[in-house]
Amino acid sequence: MEELAQPDSSNLLRILIVDAREQDGQHLLDALRGGGYDVYARRMCDSEEIAEALRVEDWDIVLLDCAVPDLSAAEAIDLIRPLAPDLPIVLSIAPGCRNVPVELLENGASDLVFKSNPSRLLAIVERECSRLRLLREQQAAPGLPPRVSGIDEGEARFLQLASNTPECYWLVEAETQRVTYVSKGYEQIWGRYVEALYADRRDWLKHVHEEDRASLLRTAQQHRLGGLDAKFRIRRPGGSIRWLHARTFPVHNENGLIVSVGGVASDITSLVTEQGQSPFFAHFDALTALPNQLMFYDQARRLIALAKRKNLPVGVMVVDIDHFREVNQTLGYMSGDELLRQVAGRLSGLLRESDILGRLGGDVFAVLLPDVEDTSQAAIVARRVIDALLQPVRVEGQDIFVTASLGLVFHPQDGNDAHELVSNAEIAVRHAKMNGRNNYQFYSALMHDDVRDRLFLETDLRNAIVHGEFMLYYQAKVSCENGRVTGAEALLRWNHPRRGVVPPDQFIPLLEETGLIIQVGRWVLQEACRQAVIWQQNGLDIPSVSVNLSARQLQSETLLDDIADTLKLSGLAPVCLDLEITESMLMQNPDAAVHMLRELKEMGVTLSLDDFGTGYSSLAYLKRFPLDALKVDRSFVQDIAADADDASITRAVITMAHHLKLKVVAEGVETVEQLALLISHQCDIIQGYYFSRPLGQSAMGELLGADKRLPANLLRSGTRQPMALLVAVDAAEEAISMLERDGHRVCVAADCASATAWLAGNGVDVLVCGPSNGSFDAAAVIRQVAQVQPQCERILLSDERAKSRHQVAELGAAGLLHRVIPLPLATGVLHQTVEEALERRRVIDDYARLSREVEAGGRELLRIEEERRHLLRENEALRETGGQGYLILQELLAHLPWPVIGIDNDGMLALVNEAAHAVFPGRSLLLGASLADVLPEMPLYGDEADIEIAGRRFICRWRQFRPAASVSGRFLLLEEK
Fold this sequence. Notes:
Layout: E1 2-3, E2 13-18, H1 22-34, E3 39-44, H2 47-56, E4 61-65, H3 73-83, E5 89-93, H4 102-106, E6 111-114, H5 119-140, H6 150-163, E7 168-173, E8 179-182, H7 185-190, H8 194-199, H9 203-206, H10 210-222, E9 229-235, E10 241-252, E11 258-267, H11 269-275, H12 279-283, H13 293-310, E12 314-321, H14 324-331, H15 333-350, E13 356-361, E14 364-370, H16 375-388, E15 393-395, E16 398-400, E17 404-411, H17 418-434, E18 440-442, H18 447-467, E19 470-479, E20 485-496, E21 500-502, H19 504-514, H20 517-537, E22 545-548, H21 551-555, H22 559-570, E23 577-582, H23 583-588, H24 590-602, E24 606-612, H25 619-624, E25 629-632, H26 634-637, H27 644-659, E26 663-666, H28 672-680, E27 685-686, H29 697-706, E28 723-727, H30 733-741, E29 745-749, H31 752-760, E30 766-769, H32 778-788, E31 793-798, H33 802-813, E32 819-822, H34 827-894, E33 900-904, E34 909-912, H35 914-919, H36 931-934, E35 946-949, E36 952-964, E37 967-976
Parallel strand pairs: 2-3, 2-4, 4-5, 5-6, 17-18, 20-22, 22-23, 23-24, 24-25, 25-26, 26-27, 28-29, 28-30, 30-31, 31-32
Antiparallel strand pairs: 1-3, 7-8, 7-11, 9-10, 10-11, 12-14, 12-17, 13-14, 15-16, 19-20, 19-27, 20-21, 33-34, 33-37, 35-36, 36-37
Helix pairs in contact: 2-3, 6-18, 14-15, 20-22, 30-34, 31-32
């Protein structure tokens, strides 16, 4: 027994180390002390000493070496658990260990850490000690509700392990065998994408070598709940063969029931090839002929050992090809392999002779840089790599442009061994990708905090799905025509138990990256449709609900089935579901998007193009997309009232959309000025804080119940009486009185300031502006009205001064002036001119309103026709079902041993079974004959009586039957006594 540190404080991290090597234990303790912990530790490797230490002292954590002589890790866990059931046990694994002891995690261990890379130890200790502290608090206060779930902790440990090892891990539901989690190792080992496995749980089996497939399937079926231990071959894209070793194990809940089955698959190709006397393929990559991961790490260990002896610098650079997945998806795996071969050749040609280039797997390469002392020298190499990849790569007759994200580290400041250096370089690569890709980043210890936070966030995100922490908020969409709510957009929110409400931009990209967006998106769709039906059943007017589709959802093979199943289960009419798809998503693969959108339209849902103006839409494709609406991005709406360019762009988008028969929805409307300008530009629907912030379920229900609307004075004049505004017009009282007596609406502003204030909150259809004078600029008012309310008819009063004539010519040439009234002002002329302008506006608005009503009526007729066809199909199916039921009934009655006679409503024989013919052979029981004629002894309908026929006694029973909606009658059953 050896004591490594003495307690000098009452607030210590107390660690029991089960390890035979003092140096290894000290290495892990140094990592904890470097993380700010005060540590008291004891190291031992004898079972009696361990038991004694557990009995006499309290510990916070156990670090258990998996290679203690004369004491296996499983035996040590069996020794520790009865003495300290809740004590966290962290496995420490020596460098070079090929097999990760996954079974120990299921049988009592909490997590694992590699001795060569103890950086994870800080996060593990923090998590496990927090869990133990909460558990002890709960035990001290037994009345409190449980705060830690064993199964959740186990799953969290499993997911953390899966995220940090190259093996492939998975979880499936025990009952349904549905895949609920697959680690990124699946893509590296199988060479396939995890989305295919989520969509089809048997996708992995398609790629098993045909000679191994049948036996593996039999073995897997025999071990559905764990216990599989099999070696088999798979075919990767391109035809290469890999040997895998797969094992499965059960995952129990707190009641001991198996709820999931976990699995791990390791690539053992190198071991098999070593045993097959094939040293080259054991150490070199078959695709690129570069040193493989095994060979690279061996070379790195040798170089680092030399650097330590001679005090030489060593650098490591990891090169990750950007968007390599898209190359495989677009051009196929064969082209992807050819791209990797050419990239490997290009990298080999630009490095120094002393540099060592290897392929770690997939699209990741690594370079050992001996004698690179500082960042300036390493930056030269990194820029050389980036520049070399700028030239196109020729693959199957076409040029492909690729970029790479690079991460650089140095020994010894960034790591003491090869695994730690490569791991830290990969962290730097991740930051390079976050900074836009096609760049390089030097590793910094601060990057670990981001990685740790992301790891914890991902674990919490997976738990959020299990615990139901997601919720929906709803933001109203409002019609610019009548001011009423025309729909609501469902917005995903995460109510984290500790962090509070997490902003969507922090977790939705992570959902996309991990593939969880498929599962969460399905829940959003189901919950939004369910809530819309509830509102409609409660009598609230909610014409539609909008749901955003992610890129992965749009590519998912299950999307159409998910939508169809959701509509069927919720009972929501398809026309009440609006799917919002971003512009960038559609343009990733526009031809496939056209096909998908058409299939969605055939289901009857509506489609909106979200964030329009932020991507690179082709108008040719925009015409092909079967869309119903465009949503103008908030970046244009934000400055629409202050920036003439944004106003022009928005007006052009609205005009273009209307020509394409599309509605326009403006996002991010926050001020009355933005609203007035959008309405004047003929925008159809607005959405934003001006009307309502995103609301929870109950608050949204209250808003719908209150029938909140936009201010009537801002709406299109088709829903209000046209308005005339007179600015700085003198001696017009009589004309104004005449207009008001005729039922017209007229407002007056004395100067520019009054006109600006009035225009900010009202819509105007006819503007009459007095002549410019020393304190009044008529041209400025006309230009302002033309910008904020371009549909307004603008009239100017002008005298004979040269300045006035010049102003009229200038405004007319710019297209800002519609009519000029000469001064002095004649009351009748002003009255007639304004009345005609108001009447023109009324006629134009009536025509626009009627056009919209005709369009809406056409859509409603299409919807009714589709419902009619649907009802006809259902009716036909019911008739077929009824006919089949009648045939089945005939077959059944024919084999009954008792006489059965069917009579229609007119008393005629409609059915006679074989038993009736046998019992009454002389009665001529023919179909269509009258029952009263052939069997006069029978009682009246409804009477159950004993009768005698030809010397035989029968009990007669009547039964009503209706085999189809249009057919009915009665059965007569005769039971002989």
